[in-house]
Amino acid sequence: MIIPTCRELIEFLDDYVAGRLPLARRLAFEAHLALCRECRAYLASYRQTMALARDAEEGGETGAMPPMPEDMVRAILDSLGQGPGMKG
User: Fold this and answer.
1) Domain boundaries, the chain
2) What does the DSSP 8-state code read for residue 20?
């Protein structure tokens, strides 16, 4: 089995996480992970980023922002010279 380099590992990261790698490639991928702390950290970061992106797309707690109060919007626009009474 040929163990991939870090660069090669990154090329297959999405397929690995999605479970689309053929068995031989997955085993080589996992052999690299067993030896490389940096790639394990990169994989953990990648998974976390993907989870946050999914959550944001679905409007979950970490991705959804509460609506801004109208008086705050007016105050911000007024401070920028773009409020209702301003020309601009």
Assistant:
1) 6-79
2) -
Q: What burial class does residue 29 get, using C-beta atoms within 10 Å of its C-beta: 0-12 exposed, 13-18 middle, 19+ buried?
A: buried
What is the C-alpha to C-alpha distance for residues 87 and 59, in angstroms, rounded to an integer? 36
In three-state secondary structure terms, 58 is coil
Residues 23-81: pLDDT tens digits?
999 999 999 999 999 999 999 999 999 888 888 877 655 545 667 778 777 777 777 77
Note the CATH architecture for domain 6-79: Orthogonal Bundle (1.10)
CA distance 65 to 76: 17
DSSP secondary structure code for residue 21 in this structure: S
Burial of 39 (0-12, 13-18, 19+ CB in 10 A): buried
Q: What is the pLDDT of residue 38?
A: 93
How many angstroms separate the CA atoms of 70 and 42, rounded? 41
